[in-house]
Amino acid sequence: MYCVRNVTEDLYWVGANDRRLSLFENIHPIQKGVSYNSYLLLDDSTVLFDTIDWSSCRQFIENIEYVLNGRKLDYVVINHMEPDHGASLEEILIRYPDVKVISTQKAFALAKQFGFSTDSHECITVKEGDTMSFGKHNVTFITAPMVHWPEVMVTFDTTNGVLFSADAFGTFGALNGKLFNDEMDFDKEFLGEARRYYANIVGKYGPQVQALLKKAAGIMDKIKFICPLHGPVWRSNFEYFIDKYNKWSLYEPEEKGVMIAYASMYGNTESAAEALAAELVKKGITNVALYDVSTTHVSELISEAFRLSHIVLASVTYNMGIYPVMHNFIADMKALNVQNRTFAIIENGSWACNVGGLMQKAVEGELKNCTVLEKRLTLASSMLPDKAQQLEDLANAIAESLNN
Ligand code: FEO
User: Fold this and answer.
1) Is 179 helix (H, G, I), strand (E, B) or coil?
2) Of 250, 276, 298, which residue is a domain's last?
3) Measured in angstroms, how far is the CA atom of residue 221 from the centroid of ligand 1?
4) Does ligand 1 have an atom closer than 6 angstroms to the CB of 85?
5) What's the whole-model pTM score?
6) Residue 339 and residue 206: Cα distance in Å, rounded?
7) Residue 165 pLDDT > 90
8) Is 230's C-beta closer than 6 angstroms to any atom of ligand 1?
9) Do 23 and 98 belong together in one domain?
């Protein structure tokens, strides 16, 4: 059965939801699924904006055939060639032999690399600022390299104010029949997944996202719809989501608060982390979140690192080094460019406690503009009462830093 939604009178969402995939990019858990968005314009010419992942191609084809209602497909615009969007291109080329493909030079090169053969079709290579008319609708192509791959462009329909924004403004989470941001409680239903998507998929490319936001600012008064490749379509309250994107891409914390990430073998480091959380709350700092790095997927940890201003790393010493999952979290923060945060350290070691120094070196040496508070809680095996003063001092130092 087809499942489509009108975006405007002559523009249709023809994408699909995927609730079967457990790991996006085979690494990020997506318990709430994901949508692959594609849009079909019926003008004098018919134009498909991006395809979708191969896994949902059957639904996609059914949707397209329903909307076309016997018309042929004239153009397919590829804004992003990553296979979660480009993988169904070949099926479109086979089914619609006269379709012309519009994309960037880099995208055509990537299509070849992935084996999506476009050779038997007319390929129209576009670059920054190029325009095309499909009848009533005129579009401008705007390059957006590294948001999130090098070939990416976004397409702006100047006739109806629709911005096809590729991965930008996308989120994890399948659409539950609701397509538009104003049909849902976005904060409750999507914000966490939007942040996790941004931080883990696009997070590394803050400067490139900033460059795109600056281009968007130039046409902001003309944008009526933002149509990303994942998640809801935005048709109101743009400022809300753009503000989130602005903060995330500048690596500014969204909120003042404390993330306590602990790596504990027998529960003793965990106990210290719990005690610190309680001390902070007693001091009136209630925006505190604890995570066991052994059981929390690193994509969640990264998402929280993007949200909060202060990060406490609490780890046991393991093989004279940093506990592996904590090491992985720090490495991922580096890879995803986490910066502008204040860190604090709890270290534990039963006979040679050196993990605190190693974590401090990693944070100060590898994360941009991050500082580590001088006060540190050092444990020898467990949190005994003689450490109460150190705990209190650490909590005070965090509170003072937060209140500055
Ligand atoms: Fe949703 Fe970069 O692909």
Assistant:
1) coil
2) 250
3) 27
4) yes
5) 0.96
6) 11
7) yes
8) yes
9) yes
